Amino acid sequence: MDEAQRILVVDDEPGPREALRIILDPQYQVVTATDGPEALRVIHDTPPDLVFLDVRMPGMDGLEVLKAVKDVDSRIEAIIMTGYASLETVRGALAYGASEYLIKPFSEDEVDEAVKKALARRAERMGEHQQIQTLLEDLRGLAVQNSLLRERLAHSEKLSALGEMAAGIAHNLNNILAAIMGRAQLLVHGPADAETLQRGVATIQRAVEDGATMVQRIQRFARGGLASEFRATDLNQLVQETVEATQLIWKDQPLQEGGTIEVVMELGALPPVRSRPAELREVLINLILNAVDAMPAGGTLTVRTLVRGGVACIEIADTGIGMTEEVKRRAFTPFFTTKGAKGTGLGLSISHALIRDQHGEIELQSEPGKGTTFVITLPLQ
After folding, report:
1. Is 180 within 8 Å of 166 (Cβ atoms)?
2. How confident is the model over 345-356, as pLDDT tens digits?
3. pLDDT tens for each residue of 291-328
4. Minimum mean pLDDT among 191-200, 270-279, 312-321, 333-342: which range?
5. Strand, coil or helix: what is 324?
6. Which one, of 266, 199, 263, 275, lies nearest residue 234 by Cα?
7. Residues near 283 by beta carbon (within 8 Å), at least 6 away in sequence
8. What is the distance between the alpha carbons of residues 381 and 261, in angstroms, rounded to a whole number?
9. Per-residue confidence (pLDDT) for residue 177, from 0 to 100
10. Cα–Cα dist 76/122, whole Å
11. CA angle 148, 160, 275 (to 5 degrees)
């Protein structure tokens, strides 16, 4: 038999506190506390699934306790109780992650409905949390597999070509890992609604699948196999997914360094194109990260899609430092970098090869101090 779910009731008034205990006791493990500090001690010892919090309490009020509870474990659900309802209090409770708000006096049916909603929400969040943990385990497995592959390639007669390819894939895999880890940390540690969680899990799932595709690419090359198949691709959807997956890098990273990057998407009407979506996302991530690196003080990143001259176009434009004619000439050369020890010089050369392999072209336009624009063209389906 499953263990009953644990509920903590926090109220300085014995009447409401005991009334709730009596209502809840038949179905749940009920623990009570008379104030905020006592409640936090209980939570640190044995975290509950759900907390009832009275707003008006001496010392720490209910909203202060709610914030402290979420700092300990954001997955603990909370129901706020008060006899003095105000719009400001309601906003504060919802801002700190309360799932329900009850006005005293409340009926047994109101309590039962609020508890069921809160526990259902917790079950959904716990399920999403487990999905994220499973995806992270899959990701670690990919990293191990990638390491083993590189060891095996050291003994291959194709060492030179495979070594360059492996280095490029490792470079791009690191980009994907950074996006995944950032998104996973936000979902695990930060409160979010069900829609945000589902979208975040889907983003991580796509990135993990893209990482697996990278590893498979080097496996196929080592065995002399064929490339992956082309698929009909919605470029606008692919661009939106890639921008969302890299949000932690273009939004949060510049903020930590005192800058702000505004992302503008200008997505035109496009028919499907024939492409390998995982490889195309790999290229777009590279170009977005390069754009962020080119704008250390912040700026604008514009992602544009359109049809021009009978081909589909994706443009990635930044307002960064730009390139000299010499840098532009060597930009797609393997191992050429302007980033010093930070760069590998493989991102653009691999991107160029991946686009050419999809019967497309990638070009760049740049001027020092005026930014850089990369233009990808792909044949329409």
Report:
1. no
2. 677 888 888 899
3. 998 998 889 999 999 999 999 999 999 999 999 999 99
4. 191-200
5. coil
6. 275
7. 351, 354, 355, 362, 376
8. 34
9. 66
10. 7
11. 75
Contact residues for 111 (Cβ-Cβ < 8 A; gap 6+)? 20, 23, 24, 102
Contacts of 39 (CB under 8 A, 6+ apart): 8, 10, 33, 51, 53, 65, 69
Give the Cβ contact number of residue 188 at 10 Å: 15
Q: Of 138, 248, 251, which is closest to residue 183 (Cα–Cα)?
A: 248
The token pair at 380 is 């329409």
Q: Indicate the helix (H) or strand (E) that contains 158.
A: none
So what's the pLDDT on residue 82? 83
What is residue 367's three-state secondary structure?
Answer: strand
- Of 222, 302, 271, 227, residue with least CA distance to 379: 271
List Cβ<8 Å contacts ≥24 apart for 156-161.
156/222, 158/221, 158/222, 161/221
Strand partners, 305: 267, 314
Beta bridge partners of residue 53, listed in sequence order = 10, 80
* Measured CA distances, 36 to 5, 75, 88, 186 (Å): 21, 18, 21, 27
Contact yes or no for 283/235 (Cβ under 8 A):
no
Residue (of 52, 48, 49) closest to 111 by Cα position: 52
- CA–CA separation, 192 and 199 (whole Å): 11
Can you list the alpha helix ranges (DSSP code H) found in the chain?
A: 14-24, 36-45, 62-72, 87-95, 108-153, 159-189, 194-223, 235-245, 247, 253-256, 277-293, 325-330, 347-357
The pair of structure tokens assigned to 307 is 């049809």
| pLDDT, tens digit, 9 for 90 and up, residues 191-227 | 556 666 666 676 676 666 666 666 665 555 444 444 5
pTM, two decimal places: 0.48
Is the pLDDT at 373 greater than 90, yes or no?
yes
Angstrom distance (rounded) from CA 187 to CA 185? 5
